[in-house]
Amino acid sequence: MVSATMNQDPFPNIEFKLFSQFIEDHFSAKITLATVLTLLFSLTENSDLLNLHARQQNPATKKEHNIMLSGWMKALARALEKRLGTSTNRLFKKSENRQSLSDLDVTNSISTKLDSMSKLLSLYPFNKHGQFLGKLQPISQREIEPVHVICPEAMECETVECNGRSIQQTVRDENVPQVTLIKGTKIYEDVPLLTGKCPNCQTRYYADHERVLHYAGPNECGKVYLNSAKYLKVGQNVWVDRVFSGSVLNAMYSFHASSSAFVEFWNDSFWSSQPRNCRKLSCRQVWQAFVQESIRSVVTGSNITLMLQDALPIDEVTKEAFNNLGANGVIKSASDHACSECTHEYKKTADVITGEDPAALVGIDENRVVPVLVGENADLAAQDAAQARENAANIQDRRADAMDVDNSSAPVVMAVVDGIVMGPTVSINNINCQTLHITNIII
User: Would residue 184 be called left, alpha or beta, if left means φ above 0 and alpha means ψ between -120 and 50 degrees?
Assistant: First the structure.
């Protein structure tokens, strides 16, 4: 597999003592960590600009001059001024008297400090003798990536009888599962998956749901789907964030994409550029993400909390979710909904049925008057066309009777099921779409 990832340079690896001393020597003592990090990442994210700036400081032809403060670095300095706003004052020491400086002096001063900082971080493609060392590549962020941990969202037990008791981590360190996390378009492997338990009521807390005892009996547990969950489990060892699951849902609605089409798109676009030897996304994982996100979208829109029996297979989850959320075949959050994309008025016959000569039906008249059909058997052709229109009208009448359509304005609802567009199979007036349970959830 050919990777689309560009060659990268490592993140600057200097001693913190040197970096800290530089900050103290060049900036205000009141400068914040956020401002310092903004400066640092502004340099590491603009390696191409630093190449252009350094090239102007190292002339190679007779007509070139050494320009210490290039227009490239000044442009970066002005962008920083705009980004920092009033915090720009903290880029100056008290002795520099920031208030007395003109706008040009402020830009030049910031440019000089950025130039010195880039050289301290070795983000400079020339050595001290002016020898070219090699073009700066995009700076890798891998060495400073945060450690991700999937854990419960609740910080204390939420049952009434426990009165906010703290939640304990239930798994020993050596037994903590290591899972794969898809966050946006990036894959993170070996992410610790932590679960919690209330020592009083024994309720278990997970990142995407809560498990309660005595749901429908003494030996049955219930699963509470958390509407605010940050991560969703879509496979045995695969979790995704809500950005990913939301993109699955939006792709199937906006582009009528099937799970297999989304898998192919995602693997071709993002999996191939991952720096790790991770597995490809599968159709089952995408379909699980679609179902999980659909359920939470409907539940959130209905302003309720869904609880089902624990450990149900995915097919049973969709059925039970519809039984809990559906009201006579209509999901509550979709009740009284109608729009031009999903609902159209039912028409028994076409708006316009002409009695003109069938020669006008060929579609190539280009808005010109079509002469009457003449010649041998012309009258038979006209009779055949009239009979065809009558047969079509009779077929429409029979279909309307079979679908129990009472009036000419009954809504015709379409549904998208894994990329397949299909209509209801029973009464349109009642909108009892029972083709598939997941269809009901989508509608």
Answer: left
